[in-house]
Design a protein that fits this description.
Chain lengths: 238, 259
């Protein structure tokens, strides 16, 4: 039993080292191929194992700060798996609803659109369950430099039950509607105005955010607060 | 405010002199003179950063010129914090680091001010970069101590413990930088993780230090040279992230505005 525990304790740094090596390999592959590698079957198994192991450690760890950080890891991994393409497919089958698809939209001025395409706009990958229409695309120009300060798209969402009031999508201010995040990737104004949006389902996102917050909080607690508490405790003991 | 790039570079070069003087004075044992020179260098750095901020109209951390300028400014306050709160000395090395950071600012990096692109106009810009820069500087300091540990064969336990205190302080800042970057990516690019080379190098760096903590946990912290080697490895990844990823055309990606 002791040998098993020792082997398992060494498994953690070994797994972290393996993941670091894979990340380095991924940087040389480029984003798309790295994405494919980290979403492949062997690495999906790795993520699931890591999730289960982190879950066991949450229960087995004595300190609250350690549990916090590990729970953060569990939530980030769970949210990431749930929000992946495979995760969305599984959840749609489990709950009997349409699978949310991620992709890019090209919104010409004044036309209703629900089509989603791949990043090169070569293949249609799916449809949204509602429509969007571009009302206006505008640039905000910096008078001093002549450069573009900001660009924004005013869109209307058309769903069952009628229109949704107009929303303005800016860079760094996405639209969140109907279980999707729409972020502005580009566009042009003028007589043939258009906007390019990235549509991403929000499956698992809130778990990821909660996990990141716990992970960060746990790291500060373990590394900053615990040593200070230890020193104060020793000082009082003296 | 119109300030010639050449004048900014001269100001950066001007700040290098007291920093280098501080390093020499502190190594020679002239503590008072060294500390005052270090403060003078920090004051000149603060003027440079302030002028640059006024010149570009946004927090000056958009490109490597500005990033290195801010890092040089941070060296003095972090050195004081590490000396007083973390009980890790090394003002001479910190002053030398500040001087070395300003050399490429004065001679290499392009000082031409550029407007901030829409993607960087976010409240997350400042905290994300600042968390990382602060973490990097403290990790570099830990790396210097770890190099001393390796040089003396791990005989001095206090050297290695000092490096550990520095890593323990900086690690949450790197975690915060990673988390803020993910939140920003979700807002700007529509995904909290895009498998971009800069993101993967940032994650690699974070994993190296996670591995360092796990290694210390499993070995009881007793393998001083191995501990030091891991800290130095992390520093190597930081250098790659800061310089190679930003300068190389091999790693073009979503973060390609740092040059």
């Amino acid at each position: 039993m002791r040998r098993l525990v020792r082997v398992l304790r060494w498994a953690e740094p070994a797994a972290v080292a393996l993941l670091a090596v894979l990340c380095v390999a991924g940087t040389f592959l480029g984003a798309e191929r790295a994405r494919a590698m980290f979403n492949s079957a062997p690495l999906a198994a790795f993520w699931v194992l890591a999730l289960l192991w982190a879950g066991v450690r949450v229960v087995a760890t004595g300190r609250v700060s350690g549990r916090l950080a590990l729970l953060g890891v569990v939530l980030v991994l769970a949210g990431g798996l749930w929000g992946s393409a495979s995760g969305r497919r599984i959840s749609s089958r489990l709950f009997g609803r349409d699978e949310p698809i991620e992709g890019y939209m090209l919104l010409p001025d004044g036309r209703l659109c629900d089509d989603l395409f791949d990043g090169a706009f070569e293949h249609r990958v799916g449809r949204l369950p509602f429509h969007l229409a571009l009302e206006e695309f505008r640039f905000d120009v910096d008078q001093a430099t002549g450069g573009v300060r900001e660009y924004s798209a005013r869109v209307t969402v058309f769903a069952e039950g009628g229109e949704v009031p107009e929303a303005v999508i800016e860079v760094n201010r996405p639209l969140h509607w109907g279980g999707y995040h729409f972020s502005l990737q580009g566009g042009d104004s003028g007589s043939r105005a258009y906007a390019i949006l990235r549509a991403k389902p929000d499956s698992g996102l809130w778990a990821v955010y909660a996990g990141m917050a716990l992970l960060c909080g746990g790291a500060f607690w373990i590394c900053w607060l615990r040593p200070v508490a230890g020193r104060l405790g020793r000082a009082h003991g003296d | 405010m119109a300030i010639e790039p050449a004048h900014m570079s001269l100001l950066a070069l001007g700040a290098t002199v007291p920093y280098a003087g501080a390093a020499l004075a502190l190594v020679a044992g002239r503590r008072t003179a060294g500390v005052w020179l270090f403060r003078a260098g920090a004051a000149l750095s603060a003027v440079a950063v302030g002028l640059r901020w006024g010149q570009v109209g946004h927090v000056p951390m958009q490109n490597l010129y500005e990033v290195f300028l801010v890092m040089a400014l941070l060296c003095y306050p972090l050195s004081e914090f590490c000396e007083r709160r973390l009980r890790v000395p090394g003002r001479g090395e910190d002053a030398l680091m500040a001087a070395l950071l300003l050399v490429p600012v004065a001679f290499i990096f392009d000082a031409t001010p550029r407007p901030l692109p829409p993607m960087l106009r976010s409240w997350l810009f400042g905290p994300h970069i600042l968390a990382y820069l602060t973490g990097y500087l403290v990790m570099f300091k830990a790396g210097v101590r770890s190099a001393h540990v390796l040089a003396d064969g791990g005989a001095d336990g206090e050297l290695e413990e000092g490096a550990h205190r520095l890593v323990r302080f900086a690690f949450p800042l790197l975690t915060l930088g990673l988390v803020l970057g993910s939140v920003w990516g979700q807002r700007a690019w529509g995904d909290y993780w895009n498998w971009d080379p800069k993101e993967l190098w940032g994650l690699t760096m974070w994993l190296v230090y996670v591995g360092y903590f796990l290694w210390r946990d499993v070995t009881g912290g007793l393998r001083r040279r191995a501990n030091a080697a891991l800290v130095l490895g992390g520093c190597g990844v930081i250098v790659v992230t800061l310089l190679w990823v930003n300068l190389s055309r091999i790693f073009a990606g979503l973060h390609s505005y740092a040059s």
